Amino acid sequence: MKRFIRFLKKFLRLLYDYSGTRHIVEMARLRDINAPGYKKPPTLFLWFVGLYVALYGIAATRYEAALDRVENRMNAVVAQLSTSDKAAFKSLIEQIPPIQGKKTPLEPSLLWPFEDHFVLASFLSKEPNPEIRQWTRETIEAWKKKLAGVNLEGIDLSGAYLSEADLSRAQLTIVDLSGALLHKANLSGAALLGANLSGAKLYQTNLSRANLYKANLSETYLQEADLADIQYWEDIESINKANIQGIKNAPEGFWNWALENGAVEMDRRAWRAFLKEQAASK
Questions:
Q1: pTM for the structure as a whole
Q2: Matching CATH number, 143-282, of 2.160.20.80, 3.40.190.120, 1.50.10.10, 2.70.98.10
Q3: Are 7 and 32 in contact (CB under 8 A)?
Q4: SS3 113
Q5: 196 neighbors 175 (Cβ within 8 angstroms)
Q6: Which residues have C-beta within 8 Å of that of residue 28, sequence separation ≥ 6?
């Protein structure tokens, strides 16, 4: 125990000397630096702290400037969406996917590693910004009933509330609609090539004539969805654990094909329990 106490005292003394604490304390006291035996405390740690804070300030300014540029562009688009000119509206709404895809530096954090990103990572890496992603998603939700025929290729609408949306004939290639609520949405004739619909709620959704080439329908809820004349259904990437109970107007052979590829037919409560059981068993 005594050995531990001696070690602890020695450690605290070293910490006091080398952390810059002693230097700060001595700055508030009168001290004769020429006194016999006096040793000037090291300040390297304080220098590193000062450098880190300075780099954080530069990184934070750089991040905010990049974010402001994207937000200003988004503001300009949103301000004009109330136009009655359908062609102009379509042109404006189609600017949203590229805006969402704009990359900004990583948001730096002074408190890293407890939150967000290391300061230097903000200088070295860029990625799509989560704030912009959320804002663009909310904009699409707000105008969901006027999206017929628009090109939203590549946009991230995961978890979006698109109930009763009109996305008929929309270009939705490689769009992320995972977990989206599409209850009673109109997706007739939509191009869903490579789209991610995993976990989406497609209850009573109109998918007639939709192109589903390489689309991911795993764990989708398709009860009472209209599947009349869906295109390339045999090339669907995954339909595993999708609930196809009560689907309407499915092409000949689709029902058997879906069950053979992992789809199920269950009431909603039983299906949810099934998904939880499957997730727990992994």
A1: 0.81
A2: 2.160.20.80
A3: no
A4: coil
A5: yes
A6: none
At which residue do the structure tokens 């992603």 appear? 133
Output the tens digit of pLDDT for each of the chain's 282 residues: 677 677 666 766 666 666 666 666 666 665 666 666 667 777 777 778 888 888 899 999 999 999 999 999 999 999 999 999 999 999 999 999 999 999 999 888 887 766 777 888 888 889 999 999 999 999 999 999 999 999 999 999 999 999 999 999 999 999 999 999 999 999 999 999 999 999 999 999 999 999 999 999 999 999 999 999 999 999 999 999 999 999 999 999 999 999 999 999 999 999 999 999 988 886
The phi, psi pair for 25, rounded to 5°, reads -60, -40
Query: In the structure, how many helices (H) and strands (E) does the chain have?
Result: 9, 2
Instruction: Report the C-alpha gap between 58 and 63 in whole angstroms.
Output: 9
